[in-house]
Specification:
Layout: H1 3-19, H2 24-38, H3 44-49, H4 61-73, H5 77-85, H6 89-93, H7 101-111, H8 116-124, H9 136-152, E1 156-157, H10 158-173, E2 178-184, H11 185-189, E3 193-194, E4 196-203, H12 209-219, E5 222-226, E6 230-235, E7 238-244, H13 250-258, H14 261-273, E8 277-279, E9 282-285, E10 288-289, H15 295-301, H16 317-323, E11 337-341, H17 352-362, E12 366-372, H18 384-401, E13 405-413, H19 424-427, E14 432-436, H20 445-457, E15 463-464, H21 482-491, E16 495-499, H22 509-517, E17 522-525, H23 537-546, H24 560-569
Parallel strand pairs: 4-7, 11-12, 12-13, 13-14, 14-15, 15-16, 16-17
Antiparallel strand pairs: 1-3, 2-4, 5-6, 6-7, 8-9, 9-10
The protein binds one DNA strand through helix 2, helix 4, helix 7, helix 9 and helix 14.
Length: 570
DNA sequence: GCCGTTTTCGGCCCGACTGTTTTCAGTCG
């Protein structure tokens, strides 16, 4: 059990309390406590078991008691009681646009509705419109939102949303009423999936805001909300929130609309403590705005180091910025090796030389090639004979392409029992081994954990590949005991891969951040099957930045000589 | 539900927009 699970419990209780109509500040306190506990460095489950629960700001007697009960008995009476009053279906209803706890409660209390399905039916029968506080418009909006939720759950992959946004930018570029525009929100922070895109727009001098707003409105296939400074619409299915701002409030606005909400809340709290007020228009002492040349000045004026957008998740970055202890986070230019690439030998589309030359052209100094192993027959996995042929070709190329270096590895299937896919004498001939689970993805947590632990114990394993097997928004990964697996990685000096494919981005940045704390090295793996796949490295760098990783934490930043040493030491 | 040396009770971040209302509550970010 880990802190994440305790946090999830407190979050659940908070949601149920909101829906039960309790004092919203109680729910807020629980949310706050959940967040603090999630980022707490030590395992609070174990500490509670030992009756050594530490003093944590925001976690008082009542919440400690909830945790104690849950740790000792595996349940929470508080939550059970709430569940009796609040049906599960109501939680789902909160996902509907324009529907919050108060409205859900009204829908439930007055119409006896407990699921989204029933709500949809009630809307079609026009019963919602007759309810106090609701009307024809809210009924129509709720129906629309149910429809939307049913089709794509309202989520987009980071890169899908980026493609839509780039399309919008090319339109804004050529519009005469717009002076500048920029990306904010969760996309700027580099979240792996997003619900919307936030775009700031500054109209040209002398152009009234309404004119720019009118143009932006014409881009939407559906308008969700439209005012003089804010426009929400749907473009190619993605919700896009435009904010029309004046140039003078740009520094405060870009900070404000980049978020996250939690980050901004903390920031405004600091401003308040200093006798200042922070909003999207500026930083004020009384009525007087402090001069801000850029976003950096917002932080500077609050006594903080500049915080990169990827770090603004309310996960300790503000405390670190105050102590001047923020890490020097990874940049794309730090990457020197392309690790986890497939060639024509298995299911890639390029020959090895083409891949190597593309790496050289990009400025990389080495390529770590890893085709599929023999069990992955569907992907052209290599029998031993082919593997040895490949080895010869790589030796030839290494002579030819000096000082560039190709390392010969394999992406070995991790078999059901945790064994790797070749005997030791074959594995021993390779420079490195990535172990990945490709089949039997539906194991129970315990079995999956044992499988991973066995693989990690194998002295030939260098890197553990796409750890959970998940595909974002389409396939949930299998569950495993993260603490146990990470402890084993640290103990056996096995590198944890962050798979950079935008459909995977596996594991999450939160897990990588924890891995770093435990002394585990991270390898960014584009899992490329052609040269275009090299581009996915940028998603990995983005996630590494979110995880607070520095150059020293990432295998891909090593020179060929250093990598050679690293593989040999293993 | 939590917190505090200006507080042990009364606050808890802030503003825009919508829809249902005759002045504002609820939602959102």
């Amino acid at each position: 059990m880990d802190n994440k699970e305790i946090a999830a419990l407190l979050n659940d209780i908070a949601v149920y309390k909101e829906l039960a109509g309790e004092n919203p500040f109680k729910a807020r306190a629980l949310y706050q406590a959940a967040r603090t506990i999630e980022m707490y460095p030590d395992n609070l489950y174990d500490l509670m078991k030992k009756d050594a629960f530490p003093k944590i700001k925001g976690v008082g007697e009542t919440i400690q008691e909830i945790i104690r009960e849950w740790v000792m008995t595996g349940m929470s009476e508080e939550l059970e009681k709430l569940k009796e009053v609040v049906p599960d279906g109501l939680i789902e209803m909160l996902k509907l646009q324009g529907v919050g706890p108060k409205k859900v409660k009204a829908i439930h209390d007055k119409l006896g509705i407990t699921t989204i399905g029933e709500l949809e039916y009630a809307c079609r029968e026009n019963r919602l419109a007759l309810l106090d506080g609701f009307g024809v418009k809210s009924q129509a909006n709720i129906l629309k939102s149910i429809e939307f939720l049913k089709t794509n759950k309202g989520n987009f992959l980071y890169y899908e949303a980026r493609v839509i946004v780039e399309g919008i930018f090319s339109l804004l570029e050529s519009n005469k009423s717009i002076y500048k525009y920029t990306l904010a929100g969760s996309l700027r922070r580099g979240k792996k999936t997003v619900k919307d895109a936030d775009i700031l727009v500054v109209p040209k001098e002398g152009v009234p805001g309404e004119e720019a707003a009118g143009y932006l409105k014409s881009l939407g296939e559906e308008i969700i909300a439209a005012g003089p400074t804010k426009l929400s619409c749907r473009i190619n299915g993605l919700q896009v929130d435009f904010r029309i701002i004046e140039e003078k409030s740009y520094p405060a606005a870009i900070q404000y609309f980049t978020g996250s909400k939690v980050h901004n809340t903390q920031l405004r709290g600091i401003a308040k403590d200093m006798g200042l007020k922070l909003n999207e228009y500026g930083l004020y002492r009384g009525e007087d705005p402090l001069p801000l040349a850029g976003e950096e000045d917002v932080y500077k004026n609050l006594g903080l180091e500049y915080i990169e957008p990827e770090l603004r998740e309310g996960d300790g970055e503000i405390e670190a910025a105050r102590d001047k202890s923020l890490p020097d986070i990874l940049e794309e230019k730090d990457i020197r090796s392309m690790i986890h690439v497939h060639s024509k030998y298995s299911d890639g589309t390029c020959d090895i030389k083409t891949l190597a030359e593309a790496c050289i052209k990009t400025g990389y100094s080495s390529l770590c090639l890893s085709d599929h192993s023999k069990t992955a027959s569907y992907a052209g996995g290599l029998p031993v004979k082919r593997l040895l042929e490949q080895s010869e070709e790589i030796q030839r190329l290494n002579e030819e392409l000096k000082p560039f270096r190709i390392f010969h590895g394999i992406e070995s299937d991790i078999l059901s029992n945790g064994d790797l896919d070749y005997p030791d004498d074959v594995l021993g001939k390779l420079d490195f081994v990535i172990g990945s689970v490709h089949f039997k993805l539906n194991m129970e947590r315990e079995e999956a954990t044992t499988r991973l632990l066995n693989a990690i114990k194998n002295p030939f394993l260098t890197i553990l590949g796409h750890i959970s097997g998940r595909l974002l928004l389409s396939r949930e990964g299998y569950k495993y005991d993260e603490d146990a697996v990470f402890e084993a990685l640290a103990k056996h000096h096995v590198v944890l891969e962050h798979n950079c494919n935008p459909y995977r981005l596996d594991p999450d940045w939160e897990a990588m951040k924890k891995a770093k704390r435990m002394g585990i090295k991270i390898s960014l793996g584009p899992d490329a099957h052609d040269i275009a796949g090299f581009d996915d490295m940028k998603f990995g760098v983005m996630m590494a930045r979110k995880a607070w990783l520095s150059k020293n934490d990432v295998l891909n930043t090593l020179s060929p000589e250093e990598l050679d040493g690293f593989f040999k030491d293993k």
